[in-house]
Amino acid sequence: MSVLRVLHLVGSAVSDFFCNLSRLYAEDCLKNTANSALYEFHIACISPDRQWRFPTSLDPSAIAAANPMSLAGAVEVLTQLKIDVMVPQMFCIPGMTQYRSLFDMLSIPYVGNPAELMALVADKAKTKAVVAAAGVSVPLGEVVRAGDRLSIDLPVVLKPLNGDNSIGVTLVKNAADYDAALQTALTHSEEVLVEKFIELGREVRCGIIVQAGELVCLPLEEYAVHPDTKPIRSYADKLKQNDDGNLSLTSKDITKSWIVDTSDPITQRVWDRARKCHIALGCRHYSLFDFRIDPHGQPWFLEAGLYCSFAEKSVLSTMVKASGISLDSFFESMLQNALQR
């Protein structure tokens, strides 16, 4: 088998925060999947000014030393590199949509879900509507803007409509707290999804990978929540900013998340709903869904996170490992999925 030229698309066209988040995961992926017998890795790094760089590594000094260029210059470099397949490592909205579309235009296949689906799932309300139509239970919700009156009874959870990592998410139990929570969410999005709060329960994530055309459900990952002390997960449960300004993961602390034994009765219930979500949305290669489990054991769909960085600490990587599949095998199989599209 010839060596594959694999491009890792890293950075953000939006902010330094998303640049750092992307680099955090991409560095882990590069370190743990490098295999010179199989791959020739290349890096394209996007900065918030939308300049492209092709650094030799993701070390900040290497990125700074790389020649910045426009999209036109980047396309010329990509053509010269003769890239076989691209691995998306961008987590901002343009990175998950516009930049994936660019590679469609260039006829360079990429791992993961297509740009149009990423655009859909960036809108939490539209995603809920699709999976609800497939028979999956979703919390009652509505989309509001500044000044809109709320028609859902408290308690409710407010979320920026196209947010991620629980940024700007607030649980509101008292009417006096609603306006402040709305303003917090509106700082991250022009529209806010307000959902009826689902009592705990449990909170889990379910991953699916496609192998030989079949949907393979992975062991669930469960998150530390508590009806009184932690009724919802927050940004601090997922990421933290270190003293040096760089980001690190907190969600992989064993006190915050763990793999659920597949013999747990909740597993089959969640797997059933996750398959419906995957098919209804038209996912390819892999998918990832969050579910809230109420006190009666009923799963409620919360949102879809249809990306994977192939970092060792990525959610899907953790689930795959728990199923007995190595990260190397997972990475290689997903590259082959992309090449066989």
UniProtKB/TrEMBL annotation:
Q: What class of enzyme is it?
A: ligase
Which GO terms label this protein's molecular function in UniProt? ATP binding; D-alanine-D-alanine ligase activity; metal ion binding
* EC number(s) recorded for this UniProt protein: 6.3.2.4
Q: Which domain of life is it from?
A: Bacteria
Keywords of the record:
ATP-binding, Ligase, Nucleotide-binding
Q: Which Pfam families match?
A: Dala_Dala_lig_C
User: Where in the numbering of this chain does the ATP-grasp domain appear?
Assistant: 128-336
Please state which protein family the record places this protein in.
Answer: Belongs to the D-alanine--D-alanine ligase family.
Query: Which PANTHER family does this entry report, sorted A to Z?
Result: D-ALANINE--D-ALANINE LIGASE, D-ALANINE--D-ALANINE LIGASE B
What is the protein named? D-alanine--D-alanine ligase
Protein's organism:
Phormidium nigroviride PCC 7112
